[in-house]
Amino acid sequence: MATKLNLDKLDMQIISEMMEDAQISYADLGKKLFVSGGTIHVRIKKLQEHGIVKGTKLNVDLKALGYDITAFIGVYLEKSSLYDNVAKELQKVPEIVRLNYTTGNYSMFIEVVCKDINQLRYVLHDALQKIKGIERTETLISLEESFNRKVQVASNIS
């Protein structure tokens, strides 16, 4: 966006509160922050227009839905200039839930969620190995997610 949005204390409080509970009504959030629900609505709309708030997501227990495998895959590219093309192809693989362009040993780091080891094998053997530009991969299977927390945004703006 061309113009930079100056966030004030109320904006940061709204962001922080909604990161904790995105289902809170604007009226209830307004009461909590001592402003009207209409003010909350206007602020959220402004934050969305500037791309700071990108919608809300339902937090689902994937294991309860039968997704038993979470794996992290380090991707080595033949050349780093192939990143954009490879990223486009990786987006077509539905099991990939996160992709990061990284420094260090890997060019890319992927998070994959699968129902079982056979689905992971398919992703590794059939999906990834067919993408031009991927030299090799290294896979780490998560045995347990001990915690997953949201970033504590600074709300000490005056």
From TrEMBL:
Keywords: DNA-binding, Transcription, Transcription regulation
Domain of life: Bacteria
SMART domains: HTH_ASNC
Domain HTH asnC-type: 7-68
PROSITE patterns: HTH_ASNC_2
UniProt feature coiled coil, ranges: none
Biological process terms in GO annotation: response to amino acid
Molecular-function annotations in GO: sequence-specific DNA binding
InterPro entries: AsnC-type_HTH_dom (IPR000485), Dimeric_a/b-barrel (IPR011008), Tscrpt_reg_AsnC-like (IPR019888), Tscrpt_reg_AsnC/Lrp_C (IPR019887), WH-like_DNA-bd_sf (IPR036388), WH_DNA-bd_sf (IPR036390)
Pfam families named among the record's database cross-references: AsnC_trans_reg (PF01037), HTH_AsnC-type (PF13404)
GO cellular component term, pick one: cytosol
Protein name, as recorded: Winged helix-turn-helix transcriptional regulator
UniProt lineage: Bacteria, Pseudomonadati, Bacteroidota, Chitinophagia, Chitinophagales
